[in-house]
Amino acid sequence: MGTIAQLFESGKKKADKGLFNNLVMLARVDGKVDNREVKLLARMAKRLSLTEEQVAEIIDNPDAYPMVPPLGKVERFDRLITFIQMVVVDGVVDPAEEKLIKKYAIALGFNTDQIEVHALDIIAHAKEGISKEDILDILLK
Question: pLDDT > 90: what percent of the chain?
Answer without folding.
Answer: 57
